[in-house]
Write a structure and sequence with these properties.
The chain is mostly helical. Helix content is 66%, strand content 0%. The protein contains 15 helices and no strands. Helix 9 (146-155) packs parallel to helix 12 (181-197) and helix 12 (181-197) crosses helix 13. The longest helix is centred in the C-terminal third of the chain and has 17 residues, at 181-197.
């Protein structure tokens, strides 16, 4: 990299908030053990609000340095890189936003835990595709990578907040047969968000697909329904 001083400084700033006991808790919470979805991920015990504070201090960091942070084995360093990228995206012109969108999708192998996706993807990928062809999301939804599939569905949170539901519903249908519980949770969450804004759209989806939905996906989708209605839907499984 051209200049590692910013990366070194950012890492040092993160470590002023590090907490060993918190790190142990996070290692368990994010399933970092052998065979688990976060296998091998390493935490130093820094909370997201503290990472955001560091991100504000390094908001001018160059893209080479952001990439260096993103390629770290340390989870909080990867989160820091992504939060800096979100800030850069939000303060860039159209050309700059396109570069950061491409950077994000070119480095998905490092966006490899659910919080890294959920905190950032709608701000970059969702926003960028708001007025563009959404086919990149469908390609991601067909990926062999769990994290790329999660990127696809959670990116649509940006569209949902604009009362645009068609891509969320289409991607949810595409992901019905997914075997990963983390995808079931993400799809159910996005369906629940659709339902908050358009209950009829969610119920129409459920009428067509509830019997085929993985139980976790269905539970998340109907979480806000009255208890009797929830029981009725769950009984269809």
């Amino acid at each position: 990299m051209k200049n590692m001083s910013a990366v070194i400084a950012a890492r040092a700033a993160l470590r002023t908030f590090a907490d060993r006991e918190k790190a142990k808790i996070l290692q368990g919470f994010f399933k970092t053990g052998p065979g688990e979805y976060g296998e091998g991920d390493v935490f130093i015990g820094v909370k997201v609000p503290e990472i955001r504070r560091v991100a504000r201090d390094f908001k001018e960091m160059g893209m080479d340095d952001i990439i260096a942070l993103l390629q770290s084995a340390i989870h909080e360093e990867r989160m820091l890189a992504l939060l800096i990228a979100v800030g850069r995206y939000q303060n860039s012109d159209a050309a700059g936003q396109a570069r950061i969108y491409r950077f994000y999708l070119a480095h998905t192998q490092w966006i490899n835990n659910w919080d890294l996706v959920d905190v950032t993807v709608h701000h970059i990928v969702g926003h960028y595709l708001r007025d563009k062809d959404r086919q990149p999301l469908y390609a991601l939804a067909r990926s062999s990578s769990l994290w790329e599939r999660r990127i696809a569905i959670v990116a649509t949170y940006f569209f949902i907040r604009r009362d645009e539901f068609s891509d969320t519903l289409a991607l949810a249908e595409l992901l019905l047969a997914d075997r990963e519980d983390l995808l079931h949770k993400a799809v159910g969450w996005m369906l629940r968000e659709v339902g908050k804004r358009d209950g009829a759209a969610l119920e129409d989806f459920l009428k067509r697909h509830a019997s085929a939905m993985p139980r976790t996906m269905l539970r998340y989708a109907i979480e806000k329904f009255p208890e009797t209605q929830r029981r009725a839907y769950l009984a269809r499984r």
